[in-house]
Amino acid sequence: MNPTIMRKRRKLKSDINVVPYIDVMLVLLIIFMVTAPLLSLSVDVDLPRSNARAVDSKRDPVVVTVDAEGRYYLTVQGGNAEGIDATELSARLAAFVAQNKEVPVFVAAPGGVEYQKVMDTMALVQQAGVPRVSLMSQPGNTAR
């Protein structure tokens, strides 16, 4: 045999080259890190009905209701709801709280009312000196 014709055979390499896999993993990591904060920028809130137990109260509550146009209605001790403006509402609530600090005050609104109007009503009630404001909800079933 001629030594110039004979080639040296290379031994087969049985190791896996993991460098391309690491590169792909790092690229995916960067993509997920960039897109994850973008997924939670806006959230549509549709407040659900609940099967919460009814509030047990020894006193009849004061209920402040706000409608879709932003008008206020006041229901005192199970009476009829009467339309009222913001300044008179604040004054009457302050009088109720001055007489009895434990009187429960609820804020109610129909389902189609903007959430901002409900929050403004809660702020108005708290500015009147009511220490604790609760939200009312309609009972419903949770099965969908």
**Which blocks of ≥5 consecutive residues have pLDDT under 50?**
none
Q: Which CATH architecture of one domain is right?
A: 2-Layer Sandwich
In total, the number of strands is 5
The CATH class of one domain, by name, is Alpha Beta
The description of the largest β-sheet is: 5 strands, mixed
SSE series: HEEEHEHE
Main-sheet strand order equals: 3-2-1-4-5
Give the overall form: rod-shaped
According to CATH, what is the topology of one domain? Nucleotidyltransferase, domain 5
Look at the structure and give the mean pLDDT: 80
The helix count comes to: 3
First-to-last CA distance: 85 Å
Estimated helix fraction = 25-40%
Q: Work out the radius of gyration.
A: 33 Å
What portion of residues belong to β-strands? 5-15%
Structural class: alpha/beta
